[in-house]
Design goal:
Length: 171
Amino acid sequence: MKDVNLQADMLQAMRRLAKSVTIISTSNGAERFAMAATAVDSLSTEPPSLLICINQSASSHAALATGAGFCVNILGLEQQALAHLCSGAIKGEARFSSGNWLTSEDGIPYLGDAQSAILCRQDGHFSYGTHTVFIGRIVRIHTSPRITPLVYLDGRYTTTALPAPAQACAG
């Protein structure tokens, strides 16, 4: 039996957990998939790996369930519109209509201007409830010199970037 109050309390608690916004991108060889996600975390440095949690109803789930590699694109504040594009009603290839999308030698789409684009070979997965946890062994990382993280907190986007220093007036 579902505990509706516990579910509602959990959702409220999670609104208080600030998370970096990412776009998970993958391909099944014929189609590309991209979805905004915050359920991403590092797993280990030996071997370098991370995990992503994907709802089993997501369009990218089938490709991932067959072992497709993926990229965790960590977004910057200037990519907020792209996060909206990859989390809304627009589906499929239309999600790639905006952004600096490139393709790795393994056929995985990634954002060339992401804060970091972490390319992974899938190294296992397991299901839990409505989601599947996919483990990615990191094979390559592209990192931008700018650090302006896009963060999701209490249902809206924000950043933890430090403000630019004020310019002194010449006089």
